[in-house]
Design brief:
Helix content: 25-40%
Shape: globular
Number of strands: 67
Strand content: 25-35%
Largest sheet: 5 strands, parallel
Strand order of the largest sheet: 2-1-3-7-8
């Protein structure tokens, strides 16, 4: 069953309507049987059938739970006569929740005892007692008492201890049956009423599970055991000999029941006819064994049938929007439940609604509801949510999240993801891209822009309710509220509730929302409101109180109180009968006292050990525990089992389980103490209030007890005692030790190839850590690649990082920190991978980064690497296996990656103290980071088009930005809010692209090609405007604050000087020699009062108010000019070069003899504060670090940007890089320490070669081209140096050459094997392979071209290093692409080895890999399954004979390659 379109629309738009029933992921089946008659069958099912059914359920993502309330107990355990009621409640729960069978009846030869009703209606009881006299009447009057607190009034059976009840039950049952017969004859009772006093528990259960059920009876089945008798038919009777102890009435009732089942429910009946014999009860009997086997097989078959029927629905809800709809249904149901007993607070509701209406058409802040725990904030939020559409219009979209009640609403990333999805679906907008949904920072920006979009549409209002934000997990900075939009645009409202019990979180929220008028306090209920609430609660339970009892309550609670206190008072008062003496009444005056009273009552009824352990387990869990998990854990708890069996042995010698009846009774009595929450795809039990958690921790969880609870939970989720492992139990009172199977659920990491054990992944690391089981934690979790990869693809790589972060806080282990840092480096590569198909990327990334550390850290890292190698060797498809470290290891140059933008980065600026970084993007988004801790502080929404420039001022407290939307915005970086928005109304003119802030005079200057505007920083008033009508268009602009001068340079080299206070033109002149040139870039030297300007034809000119002087004529167009902080170093970029100048008394002169050369066009540069280094970024997507103190020596190459580097910011030893072609920023550490000697890298000088086996690298150094260094690639060190007589200009591997040709949108590589420097294809086997890559119109598409290539030793494969930073493997014979591996840098040289290849890279790492290629590969294998691309491969066969049978065309390329007498094969891969 799935939600109807109307229901889906209601859920997405937040309408609170009753929801149709939706099956859960739980298979919950009730087992009904006699205590002793079917004991053998029940044990056989537990031993054989349940494990198989459970494994099948787990394989398909279901949890399996059996409710057998007669297992492990005697028939005496019913001291409060509630067992039958409890059974019927459990059957109803199974019918409501189960995704499989709901009811299984085991009916044999016994009818069981007739039940004695606990409650009898007033008139019915009086009719019964009138039919009796003497002792029978006295017996009923003695044991039944009238309760006027029940609605309607009834008579209640009084409790008795076990032994007394055993003798009393028969007398009461007999008296009631006699009275019922007489009352029926008198016409006072109907036959159905009379029969109620004759029915046994099993008949009550069969009626509830099958007969009275309607649609739900489809999951009901009765197993009927009959002994063969030639004189009787099934349903006409039973074996008299076996039932000789049963009275004739019970025999007849059993016969009637069987007949009814046979006649009316044959499809729900499985009959087992057994031959009668004296040893028929012996479980070893051959026929009996056959019967038990059939019984188990039929049970398993029924379970599998129902599971398979529900699978389509389960698969539907496991995908979007099914998962989202399930989440919305969960919150909607909770909201309706919370609204049921809401009362009072009308003034507060009116004030809030008025505040919302008042701000609906203007920008405003979020609205905050605050109060102490238990004050009713959640109920108030639900009430507001329910009635908001009546206030703002029926088309208003409501988004409600009761935070912490589900896993998705507990973490900020999943919360924002689901909110964005709901809003997009509700407003029919495009949902966030897959990559955006994986990163919290991306979602923050997406949500901000989404709210602006909705506001600008202006058709419908959106209201977001976020209840109990203190319950958000602290990960991703959730408690800093950087994700909360700083202002709500018109038609958008955000309402938040928060508890005052978390002052730190409340203070952070007050910092984010400082306006006092946004806060509404939720106070206690008055005594009148409290009375109204209690009356509603009692009425819902069909209860009332006597006047004396009401008086006692108001004596205890004279001034009212918090709603939680009244709920707990209700939990006490609901148990008061009208005959309860005043001395037994007790009402707590505080919530804490009430919770302790509740625990006292639970301990009295269920035992201190059981209550303490159950509550302790729930409090110790990460996300809560399911009913089945709790029963399994209690079955492993020796203290609990010893308490239960302190005076009698368990009923089974082979199997030892916690009796389900004990849990059902305790679960019912816990009432308001626990609440359900969604996590890991299941419904779990947690505490309803944070106060319950604190009380349980203080009362039941001492340090020692806490470790015990976590220890046993770790045992359970680790699966220590599953799969038939027997755990001994010592019973000291009986002086016995039992060694039995506890039959707990197995806990594999994967239930099937596609179903992971999410519960284990969530819980096990935490429990092993707190229990102090560190070695097992390292072995099973932190040092287990199966675990790491499983959790990475199911829960995201960040969840694995969070596990390591949690553990490294408590464990001082360098290895674990290295693995954690490795996973952070891996995160960008695997962030969007969710499925087993991405495993090879995870294993490659981890192995190629950790192999560096194996010699020093064998315990964890060494084992992880060995596991990776074993995993690769077992792959059934082609794969490249790293044999050495070649990806950047932790502690390397790349520190982290900043994400959050949806499009490329266009600007960035640092604050003067380097604490804050502000960046803007092509879509108008802006983000602010705290660079001290590398955390996002704010998303700055508002601009609707590309941000052109940004400046930070006020010591990092403010920023100003200008964008293509013709707006200028001044921001408060402390609060993240916009202070002023200055909108240019002349949108036909060019927007501002230069900014300057004069803090001394409180002016911000904004210039475009046609004008300069000066605005006051504090008032946003326009001070003056310089128009193009006066000066003509200009390109370069600078403000010299000290000299009060604005300098502009226009096309053709015209310099204009203006008064920076008034905007008056001072002078205008033509610059010498620049009439034919256009300014392209400039930098202002404030100290010197000069501006350095670069021009289109290469002129570099120093301009002042007195004129200009030509510094130098560069060979090409000047693309940028930068100056050092002290203005002593100047750098100008042109084409592929950067020229560096040094200041002296006369001006500037060449500082370096040679220009800094790059592979691609250079875009930007940054000079360090001490002028020791200059960093440059180029079109080749690499960053180069040059030493100015060593005459421009290239000291490092950072080849991990992945896009042309267009922006750099350098402070201290930290570098930030960005690109217009990338949505992220990279943060680099320029002084990273070499952690191992194997981390030493080969500097790529462009003159490098490899030996035949790849063991040695031959290279030169830029400072001495007459020396050839021989680098031992195995040892990672220099092993020799060769002196040459002349400068080395080329290093050539002896056998292979490549020629690149480019035509249009394709790149063609011809690879030949050459001998003695010739290019003719005359080498081994006369090979020639041609690979053509179609790059299309998008320059960033996969496989841009080949940089190096080689054939394998056996000529089967072609290895290529591509410009897209991948290594690819091709089948030479067929032209099929076999494998693609991203190495995050470009391979520069490559040579084959016996089983793979060795390659050098731009980063200087040596790649050594083995190629594993099975003889057969699955047809479903796709080498590009994790890459979106198009490539075409063409290969010439060595021999044309019989090659036509291999020829195929899988692509649609229109191009062809004609080679005489050779067949061409084409393979297109998408």
């Amino acid at each position: 069953m799935s939600f109807s379109p109307d229901t889906q629309r209601d859920l997405l738009r937040g309408k609170m309507v009753p929801l149709p029933f939706q099956p859960s992921s739980l298979v919950r089946v009730f087992i009904s049987s006699d205590f002793s008659d079917m004991a053998t069958e029940r044990e056989a099912l537990l031993e054989k059938a349940y494990p198989e059914a459970q494994a099948f359920c787990q394989k398909h993502g279901f949890m399996f739970e059996v409710i057998d309330l007669r297992w492990g107990i005697s028939d005496l355990v019913d001291t409060d006569q509630r067992n039958t009621e409890l059974s019927l409640e459990e059957i109803e729960a199974c019918q409501k929740l189960s995704a499989g069978p709901t009811f299984i009846g085991l009916l044999g030869d016994r009818y069981e005892h007739q039940t004695v009703p606990r409650l009898i209606a007033e008139k019915e009881f009086e009719a019964l007692i009138l039919q009796l006299s003497g002792g029978s009447a006295q017996l009923l009057a003695q044991w039944y008492r009238r309760d006027d607190n029940a609605l309607p009034a009834c008579y209640v059976l009084q409790p008795a201890d076990g032994q007394a009840w055993h003798h009393l039950r028969g007398h009461l049952a007999s008296a009631l049956r006699v009275a019922a017969h007489k009352a029926e004859r008198c016409g006072l009772l109907s036959p159905e009423q009379r029969h109620r006093y004759h029915k046994s528990a099993i008949e009550w259960e069969i009626e509830k599970g099958l007969i009275d059920a309607q649609e739900s009876n489809l999951g009901a089945l009765i197993f009927l055991r009959e002994f063969e008798d030639s004189d009787r038919q099934i349903g006409q009777g039973t074996n008299c000999e076996l039932l000789e102890k049963e009275d004739s009435e019970a025999k007849q009732l059993l016969s009637n029941l069987k007949t009814k089942l046979v006649n009316h429910y044959p499809k729900h009946l499985k009959v087992h006819a057994l031959a009668h014999g004296n040893d028929s009860g012996n479980s070893q009997h051959k026929n009996n064994n056959k019967y038990l086997k059939q019984l188990c097989e039929q049970f398993v078959a029924v379970t599998k049938h129902h599971i398979l029927e529900n699978l389509p629905y389960q698969r539907q809800i496991s995908k979007e929007p099914g998962q989202l709809l399930q989440e919305l249904g969960h919150h909607a149901a909770l909201c309706l439940k919370n609204c049921r007993f809401f009362c009072g607070r009308q003034n507060l509701l009116d004030n809030i609604f008025h505040h919302i209406r008042q701000n609906n058409d203007k920008t405003h802040t979020a609205l905050i509801l605050y109060g102490p725990p238990g004050c009713g904030k959640t109920a108030l939020m639900c009430k507001l949510s329910k009635h908001m559409q009546a206030v703002l219009g029926q088309e208003t979209v409501i988004v409600t999240r009761l935070l912490g009640t589900s896993q998705s609403s507990s973490a900020i990333q999943s919360l924002l993801r689901d909110i964005c999805l709901q809003v997009c679906f509700a407003f029919d907008l495009p949902p966030p891209p897959t990559q955006t949904k994986q990163a919290c920072s991306d979602l923050v920006l997406f949500l901000s822009n989404l709210l602006l979009t909705i506001s600008r549409c202006g058709t419908h209002t959106l209201v977001l309710f976020l209840d109990s934000v203190e319950r958000l997990l602290p990960c991703d900075g959730a408690h800093r509220f950087h994700w909360l939009p700083t202002g709500c645009p018109p038609k958008v409202h955000i309402i938040i509730s928060i508890s005052t019990s978390e002052p730190g979180i409340l203070k952070a929220l007050q910092h984010a929302v400082p306006e006092a008028e946004a806060y509404f306090e939720v106070g206690p209920l008055s005594s009148e409101e409290g009375e109204e609430m209690l009356e509603m609660l009692l009425a819902s339970d069909k209860r009332r109180l006597s006047p004396a009892q009401w008086a006692y309550i108001w004596q205890s609670l004279p001034g009212g109180g918090q709603p939680l206190l009244f709920k707990l008072a209700f939990c006490e008062a609901r148990n008061w009968a009208s005959y309860t003496s005043s001395s037994e009444l007790a009402i707590a005056s505080t919530a804490q006292e009430a919770m302790h009273r509740l625990c006292d009552r639970l301990e009295k009824s269920h035992g201190t050990v059981l209550v303490a352990h159950v509550l302790g387990y729930i409090a110790s869990s990460q996300n809560g525990l399911s009913d089945m998990e709790l029963k399994d854990v209690l079955s492993l708890d020796d203290e609990v089992l010893a308490e239960i069996h302190h005076c009698h042995l368990p009923s089974s010698k082979a199997i030892l389980r916690f009796p389900p009846l004990h849990w059902a009774r305790l679960r019912r009595d816990m009432g308001e103490c626990v609440a359900e929450r969604k996590a890991d795809g299941f419904t779990l039990l947690g505490f309803a209030h944070r106060q319950f958690v604190e009380m349980v921790q203080n009362r039941y969880l001492s340090k020692q007890d806490q470790i015990k609870r976590h220890f046993l939970l770790a045992d359970f989720f680790r699966g220590t005692w599953s799969w038939g492992m027997k755990k001994p139990l010592t019973l000291p009172h009986l002086s016995r030790t039992l060694n039995a199977d506890r039959k707990v659920a197995p806990q594999p990491l994967w239930f099937s190839d596609t179903v992971p054990n999410l519960r284990k992944l969530s819980e096990l690391p935490f429990h092993l850590l707190i229990a102090g089981r560190i070695e097992e934690l390292k072995q099973d979790v932190l040092g287990n690649m199966n675990w790491i990869s499983c959790k990475a693809i199911t829960s995201g790589i960040q969840s694995v990082v969070d596990d390591f972060a949690m553990c490294t806080e408590r464990i001082n282990c360098p290895e674990l920190r290295l693995v954690r840092d490795t996973l952070l480096l891996v995160k960008p590569a695997v962030g969007s991978i969710h499925g087993p198909e991405g495993l090879s990327i995870i294993y490659t990334e981890v192995l190629a980064r950790l192999l560096f550390f194996v010699p020093s850290y064998p315990e964890v890292i060494g084992k992880l690497c060995q596991q990776c190698l074993s995993w690769f060797s077992a792959r059934p498809h082609p794969v490249l296996i790293p044999l050495c470290g070649f990806l950047q290891p932790p502690g390397g140059a790349l520190h982290t990656t900043l994400t959050g933008f949806l499009k490329g980065v266009t600007v960035m600026a640092l604050s003067s103290d380097y604490r804050l970084l502000v960046a803007g993007s092509q879509d108008g988004s802006m983000l602010v980071w705290n660079m001290e801790v590398i955390e996002m502080l704010h998303a700055l929404p508002g601009h609707s088009a590309e941000v052109r420039c940004v400046k930070v001022f006020g010591k990092g407290t403010c920023a100003v930005s200008a964008a293509m939307d013709h707006s200028l915005r001044i921001w408060n970086l402390i609060s993240g809010r916009v202070k002023f928005v200055i909108q240019d109304t002349l949108i036909e003119e060019q927007p501002s692209h230069h900014l300057h802030v004069d803090e001394r005079h409180m002016i911000v200057y904004a210039s475009s090609d046609t004008k300069v505007n000066a605005w006051h920083l504090e008032t946003a008033e326009l001070i003056f405007q310089i128009s193009a009508e006066v000066s003509g268009a200009w390109i370069c602009f600078a403000v010299h604050s000290l000299r009060l001068v604005i300098m502009t340079v226009s096309e053709g080299g015209v310099l204009s000087l203006w008064n920076s206070n008034t905007g008056e033109l001072r002078s205008k002149r033509q610059l010498l020699g620049l009439q034919e040139e256009t300014p392209t870039s400039s930098v202002l030297l404030q100290k010197q009062g000069k501006m350095i300007v670069g021009f289109s034809r290469g002129s570099l000119s120093m301009i002042s108010s007195d004129g200009n002087s030509l510094l130098e004529k560069l060979p090409g167009r000047v693309c940028f000019v930068v100056a050092s902080e002290d203005e002593s170093i100047l750098a100008a970029g042109f084409e592929e070069y950067v020229r560096v100048y040094l200041a002296d008394a006369k001006g500037f002169h060449r500082f370096l003899a040679a220009d800094l050369e790059h592979e691609g066009a250079v875009h930007t540069a940054a000079i360090s504060a001490g002028n020791s280094i200059i960093v440059t970024g180029s079109q080749a997507a690499c960053i180069q670090v040059w030493s100015l103190s060593e005459q421009g020596l290239l000291t490092d190459t950072l080849d991990g940007m992945g896009a042309p580097v267009t922006h750099l910011a350098l402070y201290d030893c930290t570098l930030v890089s960005a690109s217009r072609g990338a949505t992220y920023l990279r943060v680099w550490n320029l002084v990273c320490k070499q952690q191992q000697k194997t981390l030493a890298r080969v500097t790529d000088t462009g003159c490098t070669a490899l030996s035949h086996g790849g063991d040695y690298v031959y290279l030169t150094q830029p400072e001495d081209r007459q020396k050839v260094i021989i680098w031992d690639a195995t040892e990672g060190a220099v092993c020799d140096t060769l002196d040459t007589s002349a400068q080395v200009t080329e290093a050539r591997s002896p056998a292979w050459k490549a020629v690149m040709e480019s035509t249009g949108h394709s790149v063609e590589l011809r690879i030949h094997c050459g001998v003695s420097g010739t290019w003719s294809p005359v080498s081994r086997n006369t090979r020639c392979a041609i690979i053509r890559y179609y790059t299309g119109r998008e320059p960033a598409s996969l496989l841009k071209g080949i940089h190096c290539a080689c054939f394998s030793k056996d000529d089967k494969y072609l290895y290529t290093g591509s410009l897209d930073q991948t290594i690819t493997v091709w089948d030479v014979a067929s032209g099929v692409l076999l494998a693609v591996q991203c190495v995050h840098t470009t391979a520069t040289r490559i040579v084959p080895t016996a089983d793979g290849f060795v390659a050098t890279t731009k980063l200087g790492y040596i790649i050594r890999e083995r190629f594993h290629c099975p003889t057969t590969t699955s047809p479903q294998y796709n080498s590009l399954q994790n890459i979106t691309s198009m490539c075409t491969v063409k290969s010439r066969k060595k021999d044309g004979k019989n090659s036509s049978k291999h020829q195929h065309n899988q692509g649609n390329s229109s191009e062809s390659l004609t080679l005489t007498n050779k067949f061409s094969q084409i393979c297109s891969v998408v």
